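User: I've been trying to design a sequence by hand for this structure and keep getting stuck. Would you show me what you'd pick, starting by listing the structure so we're on the same page?

Assistant: Good idea, let's start from the same input. This is the structure you sent:
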C-alpha cells in the first residue's frame, strides 16, 4: 500500500488546523447521551467524522445494523459498552477498539449502571450530525418516513 496522491499542491503549507478544547460542551444532547462533534465531514472535507459519545447508565443503543457506504469504529474511553461484532456480544472496556468495515453487522448498548464514554469514527466522512439530532424524533414517528430517514443516513437495520 502506498501513500495517497497529493491533494495539496502548495510549497509553504497553510494555516487550516481546527482546535476543540476538552472542556467544550456537547454539540447535541438527549436524555440518554451527549455527543461532541470533534471532527465532522464538513471540517475534514469528507475524509472522516469523529465523535465523542457519552452514554448514561442503561442507555441502550441501536439494534443490529450495517452501513453501505461508511465504516464505523469504536474506541472505549471510560466505562463499559456491550458491542456486537456480527457474531457475538462482548463487553468493551477502556482501551478496547472495534472496527466495523462497510457492510459489517454491528450494534452497541450500555447495559451497565454506570455512564460510559467512547469515540466513534466514521470513514469516509458523512453528515452524521443530522442522524444524531433527529433519529429519536423520527423513530417515534415510525413508518415509511422513518424508513426513508434511515436509508438517507446509510443505516440498514436487520431483525
Amino acid at each position: 500500500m502506498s501513500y495517497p496522491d497529493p491533494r495539496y499542491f502548495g510549497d509553504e503549507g497553510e494555516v487550516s488546523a481546527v482546535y476543540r478544547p476538552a472542556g467544550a460542551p456537547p454539540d447535541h444532547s438527549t436524555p440518554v447521551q451527549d455527543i461532541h462533534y470533534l471532527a465532522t465531514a464538513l471540517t475534514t472535507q469528507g475524509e472522516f467524522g469523529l465523535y465523542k459519545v457519552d452514554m448514561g447508565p442503561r442507555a441502550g443503543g441501536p439494534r443490529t445494523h450495517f452501513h453501505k457506504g461508511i465504516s464505523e469504529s469504536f474506541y472505549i474511553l471510560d466505562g463499559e459498552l456491550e458491542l456486537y461484532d456480527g457474531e457475538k456480544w462482548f463487553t468493551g472496556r477502556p482501551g478496547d477498539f472495534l472496527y466495523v468495515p462497510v457492510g459489517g453487522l454491528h450494534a452497541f448498548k450500555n447495559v451497565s449502571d454506570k455512564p460510559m464514554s467512547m469515540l466513534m469514527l466514521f470513514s469516509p466522512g458523512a453528515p452524521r450530525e443530522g442522524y444524531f439530532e433527529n433519529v429519536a424524533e423520527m423513530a417515534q414517528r415510525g413508518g415509511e418516513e422513518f424508513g426513508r430517514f434511515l436509508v438517507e443516513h446509510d443505516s440498514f437495520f436487520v431483525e
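That's my pick for every position. To get oriented when you compare it with your attempt: The chain has a mean pLDDT of 95. The two ends are 37 Å apart (CA to CA).
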